[in-house]
Write a structure and sequence with these properties.
By secondary structure, the protein is an alpha+beta fold. The chain has two domains: 96 residues, Phosphorylase Kinase, domain 1, CATH 3.30.200.20; 225 residues, Aminoglycoside 3'-phosphotransferase, Chain: A, domain 2, CATH 3.90.1200.10. Helices cover 50% and strands 13% of the residues. The chain is built from eleven helices and nine strands. Strand 7 and strand 8 form a beta hairpin.
């Protein structure tokens, strides 16, 4: 079924719901872009609080709405503000959701607002983590971590940069993957949103509104925090990231979350987990350009290369990655590398 045919099917589905929610299917308009196959539309709905609702089109078999429904319930149980499911058709891949508004954290963040917005976000993150329990979400296990890391050499280095890796470079990346995976697996496991970044948080009441959570897993406690502060689309001075991370760590300890007793250990986990994510995202951004025809994300790859280089230069075991990135980018290596 083409996208136009799916749009017509979505409008027919909403027309059948019109009496319940006073929907106006003809008012359907795009609500947000997405790197996946999902599409979101805003529709006027006089029978819904706020006067609008969000229609999700998640075309099977590429997408499955059931994880979204499951994680939304978990978020609500934790007292967090996620969209309410007003109607669903799992077979067709259609959901009608409450509307959390039009202002993302990404749009609202600036020097003046960052402390308040990030304070609310880390409060929500702690509540989410405190709700964690086993056997509810899929594990962020070794196989998944490895599949994500494999995206970097396959799609970013190989497809995007057209780099033919030497055997020694491939061996280095395999050893690096092992180190990053071991670091992630050694951390305490909590609920992980997996894309807890400003673009997926909404300025709402109560705030933040939380979106794009269908890929949630049980995984390393630093993952969502580093996703929040080292984002794909906005960067912050290291001093501020350090301050926000310390605040989270102090409050998490008081709340009884299983963070490392020494902040230096926690921050190392934060940075190494972030590196795993940054390499993964470099691969994903290349893949969705070449496979899915969405080139706009490639513009943000330099931000992730900078994140990765900074962390790799800071820790001696990661120095081989720093050297590889410098070779690729034509940057003069810093003195002091150890290989």
């Amino acid at each position: 079924m083409t996208s136009d045919e799916r749009l017509q099917a979505l409008q027919r589905w909403m027309a059948a719901l019109s009496a319940d929610f006073m929907l106006q299917p003809d008012s359907l308009r795009p609500a947000s872009a997405d790197a996946s196959f999902r599409r979101y539309f805003r529709v006027d709905a006089r029978g819904v609080a706020g006067g609008t609702a969000i229609a999700m089109d998640a075309p099977p078999p590429q997408e499955d709405t059931r994880p979204f429904l499951h994680v939304a319930e978990l978020l609500h149980e934790a007292g967090l503000n996620a969209p309410r499911v007003l109607a669903q058709d799992v077979r067709q891949g259609f959901l009608l959701l409450s509307d959390l508004g039009t202002t993302t954290y990404l749009a609202a963040l600036n020097e003046a607002s960052a402390d308040e917005l990030f304070g609310a976000a880390t409060d929500a993150l702690r509540r989410w983590q405190l709700a964690s329990r086993d056997d509810v979400l899929p594990p962020y296990d070794e196989a998944l971590l490895q599949r994500e890391l494999d995206l970097f050499p396959e799609w970013y280095l190989g497809r995007h940069l057209q780099l033919d890796l030497k055997p020694a470079q491939r061996q280095m990346l395999m050893a690096l993957s092992r180190q990053l995976i071991d670091s992630c697996l050694a951390q305490p496991r909590v609920f992980v949103h997996r894309d807890f970044m400003p673009r997926n948080l909404m300025v709402a009441s109560p705030g933040p509104g939380i979106l794009d959570f269908q890929d949630a897993v049980l995984g390393p406690i630093t993952y969502d925090l580093v996703s929040l502060f080292r984002d794909a689309f906005i960067s912050w001075p290291e001093e501020r990231v350090l301050d926000w991370t310390i605040r989270y760590w102090e409050q998490a300890r008081r709340a009884g979350l299983p963070v490392a007793a020494d902040f230096a250990d926690f921050y190392r986990d934060f940075e190494w987990t972030g590196l795993q994510r940054h390499l993964k995202v470099l691969g994903i951004f290349a893949r969705i350009n070449y496979r899915d025809g969405k080139p706009q994300y490639l513009a943000d790859t330099p931000r992730f290369v900078a994140y990765a280089r900074t962390v790799a230069r800071r820790y001696r075991p990661l120095a081989p990655l720093a050297r590889l990135l410098d070779e690729i980018e034509g940057v003069t290596p810093q003195a002091g590398y150890t290989f």
